[in-house]
Every structure is written in structure tokens, then in C-alpha cells.
Amino acid sequence: MRVAVQPIGEVGRRVARVLQAEPAVDEVVAWGVEEAGRLRVVERLEMADVAVTDSHKPRPLADACLEGATSLVTSLSWDDEPVREFAEAGLSLVVGANIETGLAAGLALQEAALMDEPLEVRLAWTVHGKPRRRGEPIPFPEPVGSRWAREVDPQGWDSPIPIRTFEAPVDGGWVAAMAQVSGALDDGIQRTIVGTADHGAYLAAIALAAAVVPAGQHAYPSGRSWAFASPSAYLDRALAAGLDVASYHERVAG
Amino acid sequence: MLPRSIPVRLYTPLMDRTRLSVAIAAVAALLGALLARKRPVKPPEHSGTWEPK
User: What is the pTM of this model?
Assistant: First the structure.
């Protein structure tokens, strides 16, 4: 598999390094930049199976992907996504490969798949900002630890399981994500909490790079998909790239 | 009309400044006490532990 990276910032440069260590990736090239260290810079994408970018304006790369018959992975979703063009070309457009709609949602779906009757999903992640002093208390793994969060609208969630999403502003370089899944048991409610916390750019690069190999191996259908749409394949690559997942064990009183 | 027997207190500018200083100090102390009681950025610890999965 050949991958083209459009590295805009530190996350993009880290993505290139993560993909260079991927056994399924034969070559990583750079697109849309004048120089990229040891990476060969290409102007056209015909030779690439998948392209990936941390750009907030990925439309030029999307157009190049359509010309070169290349699938595309982006960290965000954006306004003028060429959804129909990718579907008609039989290519995958994977959006939201980030900590929220990638790692947190992927962890939730994987845990929900282990339950007979999942009842509710709660996702939470950190954003950069002034820490709150009230709201919803969220247990993130250390070094972020428990934080106050505010509820936000969920993005892209098309599972029938009800969902609530929260974001907790934190300052500093650490970020975290958490997924809590509740399910029905014969004698009560089962609750599973899993999460991850790490350096911001490191975790963002893993979240973005993890969708690339699944996209190249057709784990995502043609057309537009959210990164969490193929949770097992996505999390497998994230774990191989160094994602550390922790599970939360609640103490039972008495 | 006020009866002549009621005493009239005279306030000098010096007395006004003293009272103003006392009032400002009291308000500052009250604000300081309120800020000291501000809620923490970390909620009370949950009753559980994180372990590698």
C-alpha cells in the first residue's frame, strides 16, 4: 500500500512517521508541500492508494484524490465534502479521524459490541481551554484525571444506541478521551468505562493515522464514512501505533 | 421642620476618607474569602481506579 501525506502541522508530520512504521504500508510520500524531510514529494496521486491530511481545508487534496483514484482520510469533516464524487468513483472518504469521532466513538462501539443489550453511550474528550469548575464530572485517565465537562451535540453518530457527548476544557499539552457504555443484564445494569490520555499531538496523530490502513484495505465502504464506522479495524491500527487504553473499575460500596 | 434639640453631627473630609478606607478593606476581605472558596477545577474523585486494559 502506498500512502500520500499532506503534512500541514506537527500532527501531519507525526502521521507520516506512524505510517512509515506500518507493516502494511510500502511507501509514504508527501503531497502539497515543497519539502518534507526524508519523504519524496509528489505532485500527482496516481500511485497512492490512500491520502491523509491534518489540514482544516482539505478540498484541494480531495480534488487531487478524485483525479488520482485515491481514497482520503481527514481529521475533520468539512462543509463542501465531495461525497457524491467519492461514492461514484468507488473511493472512500473517511472523515473525523480524531480523538472524538475516532478514538472515543470507536472505543464505545467496540465495548457496545460486547454487550447483549447496550442501553446508552457517553463519550467525553478534552478540548483546549480554561478548565471548568462545574458541570458533568468525567473520570479521565491520568495525567488528565477527573474533570468538569459541558454537554455538546454528538457528531455523526448513526448507531441506534442513545448517546450523550461531553467536552472538558483543559490547559496544557495533555489530552484525553473516554467512553462509557451501559448495558442491560438479567439482574441489573452493566457499566463499562474505557479511556486514554496522552500528549496531544501524539494522540491526534495516532487517531488520524489509524484510519489510513483500514481505508486502503476497504474496511470502509465507498463514499463518506466517519472514522468510527469500522471500529475494530480502526482501533487495531491505533493500538499497533502505540495507543494505550485503560479501563475504569468502580469500587462497589460495602 | 426639625426641632432645634436634635444634634447635628459635622463630618470632616478626613472622617469620610477613613470610613471609605474601612469599607474598601471590608469588601476586599469579603471578595478574598469568596475567591478562596471557589470550586476546584477537578471534581471530587470518583470511587474507582484506572488500570491498563
Answer: 0.88
